[in-house]
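Hey, can you fold this?
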Amino acid sequence: MAERKSRRVRTEPVPGSDPTPQLPQQVVKASEDADEGWGGQPSRGSKSGNEEQLLRDKPPHY
């Protein structure tokens, strides 16, 4: 009987992603990760476009 080959699909990693698994001691943030997304404080002076628009468009009673 012939040896079975794996049926799992193997694809190339997405460009810009880390193709190797990370160890807990060597965690590297992905390029799209930001501290704000994980509950952290945003860096000073870096307001998003949406935040700036919300500050400009305050209702008159505020």
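Oh, and this one too while you're at it.
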Amino acid sequence: MEEGRSEYPELLKSTVENFEIDEDVQTFDRIEESKKRLREKRERKLDESRDVLKSLSRRLELAKQSAEESKNSAAQKEAAEETMRLEREKFSLAKSINDLESDYASNYATLEKLKDEQEYLNNQDVEETVSPYVEDSTILKLKLYRSLGIWFEGEDENIENTNKALVQSTETSNIHMIHLDQKYSNHFVANYLWERL
């Protein structure tokens, strides 16, 4: 029995030495690149929206001036309708800008969370997560999934209790999410994740 136990330190040492972080570093770089592209896209969208908003504001002012200066009731009615239309368009554009900023904030928060989770997993002491005699199968599973570009929310606690999976495409760097509800079969979830790698 004691002789069998003496083999475990060597097994643990071999396990630790076989962990590779190159793919983790590459994944981290892809996350940073995705954040950069998302930020640049957001800035372009906001600049375009602001330009359109300024143009609409100028047209709105001109329409208001035209309505005030016009003495013809038909022209006044047309100007009033144009003013209302521009007001609605301006409101819709302002709402789109707000939605865009909200989406950006949500996506940025998701990327930051992925970054934090990856840093946590990269910095954790593997030997502290492995019992003296038996390798923790959960940690090994997580390492395997991460090497494929798949993360689970709450994976530092219990992979069996997670309710959301995130997968990053190796071709496009896009991040997809799927809720691990009971309505999805294991076969469906496996196919969904595999097709998006």
